[in-house]
Design a protein that fits this description.
Layout: E1 16-17, E2 35-42, H1 57-68, H2 76-81, E3 84-94, H3 101-115, E4 123-127, H4 129-143, H5 153-156, E5 161-163, E6 166-171, H6 177-181, H7 183-200
Parallel strand pairs: 2-3, 2-4, 4-6
Antiparallel strand pairs: 1-3, 5-6
Length: 203
């Protein structure tokens, strides 16, 4: 079981829905996790999160993304068995379209503790701008520099980035209604998942 000791102590953020706060305790061996995939925020309805039962909304598009990447999966358990662990940068639900820098920075401290549970990571996938900003805060605190440079994701995503010896992919959000609309981003998400899987399949 992981995430037993993760929690938000003070709830300082003003631009999120704290009723959507959730940190899921997941039953898995952290040694088996090879890919740490970060999406944006928790869903408004906690039953729509990755680890919920009965076809949560987040899993509908995520399963499609993995299958588009030729990773044949039908459930979150299948994704975990591939070595992927899914989480969100923000542990509360969004209120508006954007999330403030202060909130991203605050919640990156929880994400950092979550990230450090996994000793055998080969890949970090940053799905969207919030995930990229959040991980850059972590990177700055731990190694003294950001991992992903400034710039539009579509312009920089073909470059190779590393946090220590871990490959880092800047990508796009695989959940939400926009995923179903933006076909070019769906294609890029599938490419990134496929490339990540290629890096870990022999480990």
């Amino acid at each position: 079981m992981i995430n037993n000791n993760l929690k938000c102590e003070a709830f300082p953020c003003e631009d999120v829905n704290k009723e959507g706060y959730q940190i899921v305790k997941v039953k898995l061996n952290p040694d088996n996790v090879k890919v740490f995939m970060i999406v944006e925020a928790m869903p408004i309805n906690s039953k729509d999160y990755f680890y919920s039962n009965n076809s949560p909304e987040y899993m509908t598009t995520t399963l499609q993304a993995f299958n588009d990447a030729e990773c044949k999966v039908n459930s979150i358990e299948d994704i975990l068995n591939l070595g992927f662990y899914l989480t969100s940068a923000i542990k509360c639900a969004k209120i508006g379209y954007s999330i403030s820098t202060a909130t991203i920075k605050n919640c990156s401290q929880i994400l950092e503790k979550e990230f450090l549970q996994f000793p055998n990571l080969k890949v970090i996938m940053l799905m969207g701008d919030v995930a990229i900003k959040s991980f850059n805060y972590i990177s700055n605190r731990i190694i003294g520099s950001r991992t992903i440079p400034a710039g539009s994701t579509y312009k920089i995503r073909k470059n190779e980035f590393y946090y220590n010896n871990i490959r880092v992919f800047p990508s796009y959000v695989p959940v939400g209604k926009n995923y179903l609309i933006e076909k070019s981003k769906r294609k890029m998400i599938a490419e990134d998942i496929k490339n990540a899987f290629e890096l870990i399949k022999d480990f």
